[in-house]
Every structure is written in C-alpha cells, then in structure tokens.
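Subject: for your reference before the review

Hello V.,

The reviewers asked for a structural picture of the protein, and I figured it would be easier to keep everything in one thread rather than splitting it across files. Below is the amino acid sequence we used in the manuscript, unchanged from the supplementary table.
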Amino acid sequence: MNTTEILIVDDNADIRIILDDMIKDAGFKTRLAANYNQALSEIDKKIPDVAIIDVKLDKGDNDGIELLNHLKQKNKDVPVIIISGHANIEMAIESLKSGAFEFIQKPFDRERLMNFVNRAVEKINLIKENKSLKTQLFHSFELVGKSQNILTIKEQINKLSNSESRVFIYGPTGSGKELIARKIHKKSKRFKNPFIILNGALLDVKKYEKELFGEEKNDGSISYGALENASGGILLIDEVTEIPLETQSKILRVLIDQKFKRINGNHYIKVNVRIICSTSKNVKNEIKNGNFREDLFHRLNVFQIDIAPLSSRIEDIPLLIEYFSEQISKNYNIKKFIIEDNNYLLNYSWPGNVRELRNLIERIAILSPGNDKYKIMEIIKESLKDSRSEDFSLNDSLSIPLKEARENFEKEYLLNQVKKFGGNISKTAKFVGMERSALHRKLKLLGVKDLN
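And here is what came back from the structure prediction:
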C-alpha cells in the first residue's frame, strides 16, 4: 500500500469529503482538518508528505497562508497546494511567494487538481529518495583504522553507549568528528530519536538564538529551534567555540535549569536532549583569550574524545583507501578500482584529513570508470598538487653540492616518516625498508637526536 500521506484542510465539509474520496481512490492515505487549530494540531503531531490547504478558514482572511508558513518552517520540502474560492492574482502570487507548490481556484477541475497532487507526490518522493541515499551512504561509513587513536575512540564510543554524559569531540576539520557523534547516537538509547546538527561556524551571528531556541512570531506561528527538533535525541553543536558569548551564557542556563523559552515566548519548555559538542580549535586557548566561557566548557566537557589528524596516523590510510573505494564503487554501481601505488598518498600531508581522502576517492570513481592505473595516478597528482607542500625547491637544490642535497632530502624524508608513525622507530623502519638499527645509525649520521 502507498504510505504517502496527504493532509486536507478545508472548513467546507463537502469539499473535504470530495477531496478525501479523490485522493483515497488514487491510493494515498489522508488526514483531515476542518479549521485552523485542527490543522495546526495535525501538522505538529506529524508532518504530512503533501498538504492541500484552503486559504480562508476560521481564524482570518489568509489563515491558510499562515499554515503554509508554519508547515514550511517545520519542513521546507513539503509541497503545499493552496485552494481558494475567493481567489485573485494577488492572493495567488502571495501563496507562491510563501512557498506554495501550486495554487488552484474553486470550483476546481478534478483532473487538474489530481495532476497537481501526483506531481507533488513525485517531488516529495524524489527528495526523500535523494536524502535516503545520502543518509545511507554516510551512515554506512564506519570508523575505519587500526591506529591506536582510532582503536581508543571505538572503545570510548562503546563505553558511552549506556551513558547520558555530554561529550566534547576535538579534532581538525575533516577528521571525522560528525561521524563519531553519529556512532555515539547509533549505539545510544536515543538511537530511534532525532540526531540534529547545529553548526556554529555557518550561522549568522544574529540567528544563533533563533536556530537554537526557536521563535514565537506575532502572527501566532512558531519557528522551532534545534533544542526542540532534537527532543528525545541528540543535538550536535559543531564548532561550538564560534558561538557568541551572550548565547553561550544562555546555553549554560539551559544546561543548569533544563528548560528554556523560545524568542518572544512566555512559557518554559523542558529539555530532553543529549548534547555533543565538537571543535577544531584549542578550547583552552579560546578560554584564555576570552572567547569561550570556562564554566560552560566544564558543563559540556564531561567526556572528551580526541581524534588525531590523518597525517599522524599513516597506518590508517591504506585501510581508508580500500574502504572508500569499495563503498563509493557500490554507490556509483561501478567496478571497484585499485590504486596500485599508495606511496604518493602515504607521503601526502592531508590538510583536509579523511574528508579530503574520501573526496579524492569519489573523484577517481567518477573520472576513471575504466580502472586505468595511469589515469588514476594522474587524477591523484592533479587533485593534490595545489595542496602538496614542496619541501625542496629545485632552485635551492641547484645551489648546493649533490651530497648535501641528498642528505637534506634524506633527513627531511626520514623525519616526516618518524613523525607520521608517532616516533615509533620500528614501524618507521619497516615502512621505509630499513633495519631498525640501520635507521638509528642513519638518523644519528644525519644529526637527528632525541627521537625517543
């Protein structure tokens, strides 16, 4: 049975019955509302897939437009068909400007109206399908790696599964902070409830509180904030250090009182949200510089997770390459490709971390469907050349003897490898193809000291 649900809002009982019969005959489910308050209740209870709303109900001349705005605030993707028995050009333009999918005048042509309904259903189904594919792809991603850092994080996530503790995730941009938060949500008791993201770095300074707490407008409509949208689930405040100090103090009050008011609201709303925060900045420096409240930090930093940059966990790179190539090949329905020579990727600094690696693998999947190893290497070098740091300039090298240039290269190369393996000489020696004792001697000869 078709599960698409269409909300019909009209104060005329005959019209409601006609629309109900038409839409049910087409195989769709329906919900009915006879006035403004009933419609508001139905929308707040569960957002419909499509709505058909009469412009004039019992609250005012254009209360159908108010319902349209209310519904769009909750979910901008829902197609809304506006109907009216008192239509004029201005009213049609106003409804379309407010986001209506279509406008039709009473008495309406049944075939034309059903054409609108079918197109609206096609649109929302396409949006749902695209979102589902993206969500499945993202949720299918695992926290891949064998470095001690990743193994520790996996253990921490498991320990947090039965906890309600607030979590603070630290790591550079693109390292996987959101993925860690999603894994915590997936393993928690709240996994059936929403996972909402509020990105502190992307919001307009004037809109933080509206996005967080919501707003009650003069026309009686409500804009719901992240705290309400995440009710029962988890709210991830990404780049929390970007939030203004004034808003930080209000977040602190919410954490203490476990309640808040919407902007222009008169009533308190109880909070039932687990908060996870993340940042790519040094929070202690932000506190020292007066950009972040220390008391808020201690409220949020109950449990701390640190994810290291990809350049410092080089042993994870081959596993990530293998994993992303398999997942993305499945997503694009193409044959899995193989990168035969990983050395170029292993020696790259990865300023964009795991996200940059994933994007590169996706680019290869799109541009090299034939699995041509030369084409793949060309894509890799072309993609990374602008970000790759040039440690040695040819012009500089030409001004010194060959022996000195070779020593400079060896020293820089070996220092980078030791750094990537976290100072572990045994792992570094194995990677560069040397005996451990020989590597020690080489480093000593090159004037490198105090590695341990």
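For the response letter, the relevant points are probably these. The longest strand covers residues 274-279. The chain is about 50% helix and 10% strand.

Happy to draft the paragraph if you're swamped.

O.
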